[in-house]
Amino acid sequence: MNTILKTKHLTKWVDNSSGRVFLLRxxxxxxxxxxxxxxMGPSGSGKSTLLNVLGMLDTFNEGEYEFIGQPVHTLKERxxxxxxxxxxxxxxxxxxxxxxxxxxENIEAPLLYHGMKQKERQAAVADILDRxxxxxxxxxxxxxxxxxxxxxxxxxxxxxxxxxxxLADEPTGNLNSKQGEEIMELFxxxxxxxxxxxxxxxxxxxxxxxGDRIIELLDGRIVK
Length: 224
Fold this sequence. Notes:
The chain is an alpha/beta fold. 35% of the residues lie in helices and 28% in strands.
């Protein structure tokens, strides 16, 4: 299996009035293509920060980060943004859907940034609506959906660009147990059948155990 991402001594800090506070410290990681990784740790341990750094939504101060063979630490902001846009899907606990857009429009949004032609966009959206069994919801707005349905739309939107890496930050945190179970089963299917590499941050031991391995963080360091 090829390595999809690798970090060496990755470190991130913020300076405040009382001195330097380390958010991530000396993170050495290697993740293979097709792995399903769970990240655990108490609140404030750096889980979401790590996800944001790996997803290139946030920068870091020291160390190296290589993603699909590209040295992220040497890239300019625009190059990082392109790399992220074409290869990474992000799923958030709070869904982050756009209230004024319908389900179909929310799912289509990432494709607009790719400069895809309208017919191709419509075909891709129709395909994913069908795959997720939400064709009947395509003209509804987020406020008209349940939490589980909103999260499904969030996942569909993340997957429409066919990412190599899916990052999920507490994807079942706002869902009831049945909805959460359905989302996790979907993740396993995406990982096993489509070969999507997944890194999820979770507080749930049960959800974490669905992955191939668990990475534990404490005070910004990997402890296990």
